[in-house]
Amino acid sequence: MLEDLTTAVSAGTPWPAAYPEGYAVVDVETTGLARDDRIISAAVYRLDGRGEVEDHWYTLVNPERDPGPVWIHGLTSEVLEGAPLFPDIAEEFAARLDGRVLVAHNAVFDWQMIAREYARAKSEPPVKQRLCTIALSKELGLPLPNHKLETLAAHFGVVQRRAHHALDDARVLAEAFRPSLRAAAAGHVRLPLLECRPLTEWSQTPRIGQQASGGHGGGYRPNSWRAARKRPACPYPNPGRYEDGRPLKQGMRVAFSGDTSTERELLEDRAFEAGLHVSTSISRLTSLLVTNDPDSGTSKVLKARQFGTPVVDEAAFGQLLRDVAPASTPAADR
């Protein structure tokens, strides 16, 4: 079926007018997965609107710290010592991204690492939207046993030469993205595009029950980076599950799963500041699961289904945060 779709669009099927005009397929290797980890290499394949390669670019980046899992990416301190710092390559990197949709495998990770590096450099990457190839493969219903890059590559007959090397991973993804894009176009599939927002941080604490304004508004300060920290416990008792059509209530236990337009920790901060309990797992006590992909099959989604936990997407959750009902029992009376 996929081959039929690809052939059909190649034979002259009208291209969807709503599709983007260009893509930047990106891969970054990093010192680790945490908020304070750094990019040590980056690669970009620029594609036109139909997925054809225009050019590619690769650079090492000196992270100014230990390179992390060398046994994975192979980049030692000696190799990186003479590499440029991120501010030195930020302009060239931005030029490769400008005006294009950022495409990556598990795009939220690559986007957040890139956004943090630009925040440290007191700048913003010129990216408005991202597309995760994991999400696209789900939209296409590809018969994949898992969502690893090598599995997607094998499905399309793309040969990996150097796994966990940014340039080769970006090449592999670009070659797998092209037939995926053509299949989506032939089947008039909606591309799973998500908004990219510059990395932001709370600059003031909103009153409980009110949502701070997003984007570049008064509740956030753009171009800043916040170190990881542990939140204090929610001061309100759990009032039970969320009910459709009714407001959220302070003390409700909320969990998040999957890719989000707003950085995950900012969403969690919004929930906490509104008086909700942010949970890292799903149990029978969970009031609500927030996910943009309720059919993803993640452990949280599966447990939510098992326990009958209500599920809403990010947009609906944002609306609910605007009017969170006060707790029945004030925190001081507990």
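Above is the first protein from milestone M3; the second protein from the same milestone is given next.
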Amino acid sequence: MGDILFLAHRIPYPPDRGDKIRGFHILKYLSTKKRVHLIAFADDPKDLKRKGGLARYTGNRSIIWRAKSQTMAALQALLSHRPVSLTAFDNQQLRASVENILDRHAIDTIYVFSSQMAQYVPQRLRQKVIMDFVDMDSAKFAAYAQSSKGPMGWMMGREARLLLAHEKAAARNADANIFVSEAEAELFRERTGAERVQVIENGIDTEQYDPSASFKRIDTMGRPIVFTGQMDYRPNVEGVIWFVETILPHIRVDHPDARFVIVGRNPTDAVKALAKHPGVTVTGEVADVRGWLAAAAVVVAPLKLARGIQNKVLEGMAMARPVVASAAAAQGIEHGDTIMVGETVGEIATAVSQLLSDPKRAAELGAAARKQVQERYSWEARLSGLDEILGIKPRGRRTAA
């Protein structure tokens, strides 16, 4: 029985943002079945220093710095008639690393994490190929195109069309195509006609995300309404701007002590500027988001555009906090009515205000939410479906050679 080659668009360690969390837990799970070799990009200098954390889960590791600017990627995309999503991750050193691993090791499965990495799968293969799209990127850019105008709208539309063609080709060449939710899987089937489409949902580490766990507590004034996420990611940026400009003012009419706290690394200038609004704090990167989640009176996920399952919602639920999410952010999560969901400004503002006014109900909702994720969203349960997809049987953990 051969090894697994795991290709990732971003090193899945430390597991401190959505894609890295899913990637890490899948890699960790696979390492209990077979020897796994990792080839991945890094785009954060700190990740290069901490990559040793993957040693116990991997054999060979090749982590390549991704330095190409977005401007250069866009220029290359226009000249080559390819999507920017691919040219941004086109790298000869990584391609050579793939060839080297395939030549030197008995690889029987290539696990491709994200559509950007499908370009590194050789044309003629004897290995099984598993495409983990996570969600449908072309649909995201199609939505961007609808909400953008002028050159940007044209560029987003172009990206959506070319990326859709790439996704179709990648799916045809794969033995299995994986998505994070049934909603994403069904959308992919509908738009591509692809077969062999399956769902492996995200989970949550309920031992780490536990309000009684050991972590640094946060002392804060007022009653925090907390949002967590990567703050240079467009849906997160748009979501917090929408909340601050249109939803928060309604909440503060009845709850003037309410404070909206935006927690996450790399806040854009537009996000930083939100701190000028009354009752808004932008923390930037924090060492541990659990402190802020534990301090939250309410956790919110006011996303207008969301693909797949939102880890920020699962994390808030696991920390036994009352969660208010937009319909888009809640999609795909079997929450069993243990979170509150709103579509409009009024619905979200009312839900948050009600929870701030009724701490007892908020606590009961949070406790029910934690119980729901404990029963429904453990990583072991969510990833068990990989055994059948990969044709592997459970066995003891393999460590790095």
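Note on the second protein: The first helix runs from residue 18 to 30.
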